[in-house]
């Protein structure tokens, strides 16, 4: 795992995105290098930033989480994608994993679980 995990947030709910960004910034081993509201913008941001981990919502405008995962990984193949969503069906989880996501967790998880998922994803071999 890198000494400091670079992270991009992809979340259309502005308040949730900003709150999560603030909470993550309290952890010295995580650096939020960018945040955007949709998958198309995420792909461009990830192309420039090449983050270690990308947290992607499933239900967003422009493209869903599975399509956003594909776009992000096409732009930044070494990144690891985690879906962080309010609710997701088994079929949607399957689509996410097929698209290349390494995990899918829900927004009602506690922050420690989200941090563990980020750190675990960053530790995966490229």
Structural features:
5 helices, five-stranded parallel sheet, 126 residues, alpha/beta
Helix and strand arrangement:
Elements: E1 5-10, H1 14-25, E2 30-36, H2 39-49, E3 53-56, H3 65-75, E4 80-85, H4 90-99, E5 103-106, H5 111-123
Parallel strand pairs: 1-2, 1-3, 3-4, 4-5
Helix pairs in contact: 2-3, 3-4
Give an account of the 3D structure.
The chain has 126 residues and is an alpha/beta fold. The protein has a single domain (5-123), classed as Response regulator (Rossmann fold, 3-Layer(aba) Sandwich), CATH 3.40.50. It has five helices and five strands; from the N terminus they run βαβαβαβαβα. It has helices at residues 14-25, 39-49, 65-75, 90-99, 111-123, and strands at 5-10, 30-36, 53-56, 80-85, 103-106. Strands 2-1-3-4-5 form a five-stranded parallel beta sheet, with helices on both faces. Strand 3 (53-56), helix 3 (65-75) and strand 4 (80-85) form a beta-alpha-beta unit. Helix 2 packs parallel to helix 3 (65-75) and helix 3 (65-75) packs parallel to helix 4 (90-99). It starts with a strand and ends with a helix.
Mean of the pLDDT scores? Answer: 94
CATH class: Alpha Beta
CATH homologous superfamily designation:
Response regulator
Q: Given the helix and strand composition, which structural class is it?
A: alpha/beta
Span of the ends, CA to CA: 10 Å
What order do the SSEs take from the amino end to the carboxyl end, as H and E? EHEHEHEHEH
Hey, roughly how much beta strand do the residues contain? Answer: 15-25%
What's the CATH topology name?
A: Rossmann fold
Residues in helix, %: 40-55%
The radius of gyration is 13 Å
Which regions contain 5 or more consecutive residues with pLDDT less than 50? none
How many strands? 5
Major sheet: 5 strands, parallel
Q: What general outline do the C-alpha atoms trace?
A: globular
- CATH architectural grouping: 3-Layer(aba) Sandwich
Strand order of the largest sheet: 2-1-3-4-5
Indicate how many domains the architecture comprises. Answer: 1
Helical segment count:
5
């Amino acid at each position: 795992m890198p000494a400091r995990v670079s992270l991009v947030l992809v979340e259309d709910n502005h308040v949730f995105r900003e709150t999560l960004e603030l909470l993550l910034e309290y952890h010295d081993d995580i650096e939020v290098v960018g945040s955007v509201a949709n998958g198309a913008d995420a792909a461009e941001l990830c192309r420039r930033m090449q983050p270690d981990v990308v947290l992607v919502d499933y239900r967003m405008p422009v493209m869903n989480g599975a399509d956003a995962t594909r776009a992000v990984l096409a732009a930044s193949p070494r990144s690891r994608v985690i879906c962080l969503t309010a609710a997701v069906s088994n079929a949607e989880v399957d689509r996410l994993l097929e698209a290349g996501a390494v995990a899918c967790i829900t927004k009602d998880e506690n922050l420690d679980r989200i941090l563990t998922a980020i750190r675990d994803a960053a530790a995966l071999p490229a």
